[in-house]
Amino acid sequence: MPRLVSVGRTQVWRLRSDKTAMDSSTAPGERHGRSAGCLAAARGLETAAGRRAALQGQRGLSLIELMIAVSLLALALGLGVPSLRDMIDNNRVARQATLLQSDLRLARTEAVRRGAPVGLCTSSTGTGCTAAATWRDGWIVFSNRQGDGNFDAAAGDEILRVQAAWGNADTSVTSPDARGIAFNGEGFSANLRGGNTTITIAAAGGSVHARRCLVLNLAGTVTLNGSEACP
């Protein structure tokens, strides 16, 4: 509003705007408080707008996307589970074959050390040879005076090591059939006839990869072959 201002003896009209007059009549602290309030309100509006935009950008899976994800998961499980099972079977069969190979070599080494026959035969009791058993049922390593692969306590044979059954349904097939093997004092096979003897160990699941073959020749050498070399 126009105001009449007296300056000395001269009266001068000075126009001031309503806003300037209001600002001049307002205390500094009040002006600062109003400014801070306006700034806080603006920031609040910006924060709320940002939150709304973020929420609008987030959305759940559609039914089609969920079905695709479930299908891919089922496919991955279908491919992975058989591979895992084959790996477990393969490792178990390899361990069992290695154990039998180790005891065959022990029997041969002990025969050479003693200078006398040492045998190894299938045994489900751990006290003597079991004719109806296979290598999966367990075996024993023993001194074998007769050199025929059969344990005979009456003849003075002594058990040197007992191996328990595998405790699973894996199979072992010996060709030609031999439930007892003996090595003479020179380390040669003492009771094998007709060339090499092969012991095939296979997983119960029938996986072609979970197989191992032990090949024993007349010289007494024991070779462990993978599934690709098994008959």
Keywords:
single chain; 231 residues; 2 domains; 39% helix
Report a brief summary of the structure:
This protein is of the alpha+beta class and 231 residues long. Helices cover 39% and strands 22% of the residues.
Structure explained in plain terms:
With 231 residues, this protein is an alpha+beta fold. It has 2 domains: 14-54; 86-229, 3-Layer(bab) Sandwich (minor pseudopilin epsh fold). Helices cover 39% and strands 22% of the residues. It contains 3 helices and 10 strands; from the N terminus they run ββαααββββββββ. The protein has helices spanning 18-25, 28-57, 63-114, and strands at residues 3-7, 10-14, 118-122, 139-143, 159-163, 171-175, 180-183, 197-202, 211-216, 222-225. A 4-stranded antiparallel beta sheet has the order 5-4-3-7, with helices on one face. Strands 6-8-9-10 form a 4-stranded antiparallel beta sheet, with helices on one face. A hairpin with an 8-residue loop joins strand 8 and strand 9 (211-216). The radius of gyration is 46 Å and the shape is elongated. The N and C termini lie far apart (114 Å).
Write the layout of secondary structure elements.
Elements: E1 3-7, E2 10-14, H1 18-25, H2 28-57, H3 63-114, E3 118-122, E4 139-143, E5 159-163, E6 171-175, E7 180-183, E8 197-202, E9 211-216, E10 222-225
Antiparallel strand pairs: 1-2, 3-4, 3-7, 4-5, 6-8, 8-9, 9-10
Q: What is the CA–CA distance across the termini? A: 114 Å
Question: What structural class do the secondary elements suggest?
Answer: alpha+beta
Gyration radius from CA atoms, angstroms: 46 Å
CATH architecture of the largest domain: 3-Layer(bab) Sandwich
Quick one: overall form?
elongated
- Taken in chain order, the helices and strands follow as EEHHHEEEEEEEE
For this structure, what is the CATH class of the largest domain? Alpha Beta
Strand content: 15-25%
Count of DSSP helices?
3
> What's the CATH H-level homologous superfamily of the largest domain?
minor pseudopilin epsh domain
Please give the domain count. 2
Helix content: 25-40%
Q: Strand sequence of the main sheet, in spatial order?
A: 5-4-3-7
**Largest sheet: number of strands, sense, barrel closure:** 4 strands, antiparallel
User: How many β strands by DSSP?
Assistant: 10
The mean pLDDT is 79
CATH topology of the largest domain: minor pseudopilin epsh fold
Model regions low in confidence, pLDDT < 50 over at least 5 residues: 1-26
